[in-house]
Design brief:
The complex is a heterodimer of chains A (265) and B (288). Chain A folds into two domains: 45 residues, no CATH class; 200 residues, MetI-like fold, CATH 1.10.3720. The radius of gyration of chain A is 22 Å and the shape is globular. With 265 residues, chain A is an all-alpha fold. Chain B has one domain: MetI-like fold (Orthogonal Bundle), CATH 1.10.3720. Chain B is built from 13 helices and three strands, in the order βαββαααααααααααα. Chain B is globular, with a radius of gyration of 23 Å. Classes of the chains: A mainly alpha (265), B mainly alpha (288). At the A-B interface, α1, α4, β1, α5 and α6 of A face β1, α1, α3, α4 and α5 of B. β1 of chain A pairs parallel with β1 of chain B.
């Protein structure tokens, strides 16, 4: 029995080790990193963080990422809400095919879309804008949001809708004042997952931007390749990207499984 | 029973337009390139199905596809049993549960290139924690940039680190939904631990495990950023998975025709997997 309870502990330790190393590295000076191995930072320094917060290319990377992630989350959830309602309440010609087609986009390899996206968004004059990345991420986030919301909406009994209509509610009023509050945790989970998948994706966001909307992920690869051994800086930048996820995850801890299962648990 | 209502199409129109803009137009571009040859200046020549034939016969594609299947196979046979074992050993309730859930989910929320960079720093032979431990404490020569086997072990361990929690969380969600009465009945019958697992827990986890396996199959099949940042596909071509190879051809060499043909073949494979996913999932929906 005691052996059994050790398993999660060992697993969590394994998960934390690389993260610990990243954080430890971010507090070391470049000299200490190059001098050799040390388990803890010998001389603690905030220089890496100070550089990130004072250099516009660095901190604008974060701001750019946050801008397009937020835009994407808002767009995805807003358009997914009515669609998910339609899928959960009505049957219409082609509904099953449409639902399946949405799913195929969630499963599509991003690498297939990299080049055509570059051409498409250049052609419509959106290349290197936040909107381009936000729209491109809709490819996999809208299907995800529709599926998750549909899962939550199907859990709400249909009698709720019917009672509201009998009581004389119009559809918009019913949707906003009765239905939305009933599925608010679903909206939260869908928003969280859109936020997350837009935040972690790099191939498309890097392909669609050059200077103006460059995400933090792309700024990091530039540093890694051109400046050689600025490991401390890279580690600090990496550490900062973990923080947004770490903050919001507590609120959705009980729904993470449901979100990954596209609303089907 | 759902109501028949054709006006529901109005509700799905915004989704349809946005996703179609992102999916159909690029797909048409890819189809267009896959049947033409270009020498620049926007001059195109009809090429028929030659690119498809070339890709399907090329050793490079076979190798990348083989590596891709090997990678996906390895991470599935490690992550799924490991994830189930961890989920089974987690407490059903108590103050530790939220802590476990949050810390376990953390790796999945880290940007994919940071995951690659983090493992790169972690495994550097002389200054990384793992690299130092292997080379200097255990005395095993370990250098990902030189040794293909080390590179493979590293990308597998990295993926296990990154995604096993997905299986854990889904399996755990299935486990906590089992009513206590089932376990009490098993105890009265004197069922062994194995019998409890085989006849109570596993059947109850079937739905979530199907989802977990298919999601892991597809996401690992499309993996690009993490191994690319970690190994760059090397040493040599040893860790060049399908996506990495495709991006190399499309954006590196700008060989649009072969890249487009390869994209469509790649997409067809994921489409088949999606169909399987959908069928299994709706089968489960209908049963419950």
């Amino acid at each position: 029995m005691r052996l059994k309870s050790l398993v999660p502990v060992i697993y969590i330790l394994f998960l934390m080790l690389p993260i610990y190393w990243l954080v430890a590295m971010s507090f070391k000076t470049t000299n200490e990193i190059l001098a050799g191995f040390s388990l803890f930072p010998q001389t603690w320094t905030l220089a890496n963080y100070i550089e990130i917060f004072t250099d516009p290319t660095w901190y604008w990377g974060y701001i750019n990422s946050i801008i397009y992630v937020t835009m994407n989350t808002v767009i995805s959830v807003l358009v997914a809400l009515p669609a998910a309602y339609a899928f959960s309440r009505y049957s219409f010609v082609g509904d099953k095919h449409l639902f399946f087609w949405l799913l195929t986009n969630r499963m599509a390899p991003a690498a297939v879309f990299a080049l055509p996206f570059f051409q498409l968004y250049s052609a419509v004059g959106l290349f290197d804008t936040h909107l381009a990345v936000a729209l491109a991420h809709c490819l996999f986030n809208i299907p995800l949001a529709v599926w998750i919301l549909e899962g939550f909406m199907s859990g709400v009994p249909k009698e709720l809708d019917e009672t509201a209509y009998v009581d004389g509610y119009s559809f918009p009023r019913f949707f906003a004042t009765i239905f939305l509050p009933a599925i608010k945790s679903g909206v939260g989970v869908a928003a969280f997952f859109c936020f997350m998948f837009s935040w972690v994706e790099m191939l498309l966001s890097k392909t669609l931007t050059a200077v103006e909307a460059k995400p933090i992920a792309a700024v990091m690869t530039r540093t890694a390749s051109s400046a050689g051994y600025e490991l401390g800086l890279l580690a600090a930048a990496g550490t900062l990207t973990i923080i947004p996820g770490a903050i919001v995850i507590y609120f959705v801890r009980n729904y993470i499984a449901k979100g990954f299962a596209l609303g089907r648990v | 029973m759902k109501t028949q209502n054709q006006r529901a199409w109005l509700f799905v129109t915004p989704v349809l337009l946005l996703v179609a803009f992102n999916a159909l137009i690029p797909m048409m571009t890819v189809v267009n390139y896959s049947v033409q040859e270009t020498f620049g200046d926007n001059l195109f020549f009809w090429q028929g199905l030659d690119w498809f034939e070339q890709v399907l016969r090329s050793e490079r594609f076979h190798n990348a596809l083989g590596r891709q299947f090997l990678f996906t196979f390895l991470i599935l046979i490690i992550e799924v049993p490991l994830g189930i074992a961890i989920a089974l050993s987690m407490p059903k309730q108590g103050p530790w549960v939220p802590f476990c859930l949050v810390t376990m989910a953390l790796p999945m929320l880290i940007p994919w290139n940071v995951v690659g960079a983090m493992w790169n720093i972690f495994t550097l032979p002389d200054i990384g924690l793992l690299g130092y431990f292997m080379n200097h404490t255990l005395g095993i020569s370990y250098d990902m940039t030189q040794n293909p086997l080390a590179a493979w072990v590293t990308i597998i361990v990295m993926d296990v680190w990154h995604w096993t929690s997905l299986v854990v969380l889904l399996a755990y969600a299935g486990l906590v939904s089992i009513p206590n009465a089932y376990y009490q009945a098993a105890e009265i019958d004197g069922a062994s631990n194995w019998a409890v697992f085989r006849f109570i827990q596993l059947p109850k986890m079937k739905t979530v495990l199907t989802i977990a396996i298919l999601l892991r199959f597809m996401d690992s099949f499309n993996i690009y950023t993490e191994p690319f940042v970690l190994t760059g596909g090397g040493p040599g071509n040893s860790t060049t998975l399908l996506s990495i190879d495709l991006v190399k051809i499309a954006l590196g060499q700008f060989d649009l025709g072969p890249a487009a043909a390869m994209s469509l073949i790649y997409f067809a494979i994921t489409l088949l997997a999606s169909w399987l996913f959908y069928t299994l999932m709706t089968m489960n929906d209908n049963k419950s």
